[in-house]
What we know:
Blueprint: H1 10-21, E1 27-29, H2 32-41, E2 43-49, H3 50-55, H4 64-76, E3 79-86, E4 89-95, E5 98-102, H5 115-128, H6 133-148, H7 158-169
Parallel strand pairs: 1-2, 2-3
Antiparallel strand pairs: 3-4, 4-5
Helix pairs in contact: 1-2, 5-6, 6-7
Amino acid sequence: PHGDLPIDPDVYRRLAADLSRAGVAVVVDLAGERMEAALSGGVRVLKVSDEELRADGRLEGDSPAAVMQAMRELRASGAETVIVSRAEQPLLLLDADGFLEASAPRLEVADHRGAGDSLTAGITAGIARGESPRTAITMAAAAAALNVTRHGLGTGDLEAILDADDTAAA
């Protein structure tokens, strides 16, 4: 969600905790109080941007080392896997196996809006198919890359995303 909503952040904590206890993989793309609340409930995957981490006071500077430290702290706060998007820079993933850097194909940008949401959707779709976040990140990066080549949010079709995913995996 963007802006101030009348939903108390504790709703995110309770929802994450209840779903996790029920065996549901919780994937969130949140920042600020909502992120903190969801983390305290426990999440399988947290996706957040470096800009959001900076705005929340969890990140100072742009160095990969600073981003990695913030990711370690987020993981210790309740996320099994942390994914940080970094605009044009490769995204970073941290899970129990350590860090992974993933780059999306460099494409002509028509509209950057929605790339992060497409990334989160790709991760969520992969997890729903039984993939690990490390495997799902390939399709997610393809979905995000395809999104920026078009005008309009979420305009990438599944066939094009899967084709880009197959190309990236090869």
